[in-house]
Amino acid sequence: MTWYLLTLNAEDVAAGKIAPIKDAFTAAFRAAGGPRAMALFQKVNDVGGVELFFTPDCGNFASDFLTEIGATPCPGPALAGLELLVGHNEITYYLTT
Predict the structure, then answer these.
(1) Which residues of 64-87 are buried (b: 16+ CB within 10 A; e: fewer)?
(2) Which of 29, 52, 32 is nearest to 42 (CA)?
(3) Over the stretch 54-93, which tens digit does the pLDDT of each residue have?
(4) Rounded to a whole number, what is the distance in angstroms from the first to the last CA of the chain?
(5) Where is 3: in which H helix or E strand?
(6) How far is it, in rounded angstroms, from Cα 87 to Cα 38?
(7) Is 2:74 a contact under the CB 8 Å cutoff?
(8) Which structural domain range is residue 19 located in?
């Protein structure tokens, strides 16, 4: 399954660029009715930046949003270090089965 990735560098993080992306994603999530497998995760990288990962269902419910922010298709991330920003808490169950 194809995930989506947006990488923010340390300067983007310091400039507060995560919050507006999270807010816009939350709006898209709510507009889609809160699908169980639609979620946004973050993972801090080694150079002070952040990788934002969007689950495969985001492509079905928020493809325009993903295009707008420049997210690109990627393989699924390793679960270690992922932090759920938006989505249902049980999403980790879906990711491990």
Answers:
(1) ebbeebebeeeeeeeeeebeebbb
(2) 52
(3) 999 999 999 999 999 999 999 999 888 899 999 998 887 6
(4) 13
(5) strand 3-8
(6) 6
(7) yes
(8) 3-96
Q: How many residues does the chain have?
A: 97
Cα gap 47→59, rounded to integer Å: 28
pTM of the model: 0.92
Q: Extract the tokens encoding 89.
A: 């808490």
Handedness of CA 18, 24, 28, 31 (dihedral sign): positive
Give the tokens for residue 51.
């990788």
Which residue in 11, 4, 16 sits closest to 69, CA to CA? 4
Q: How many domains does the chain have?
A: 1
State how far the Cα of 55 lies from the Cα of 41, in Å rounded to an integer: 8
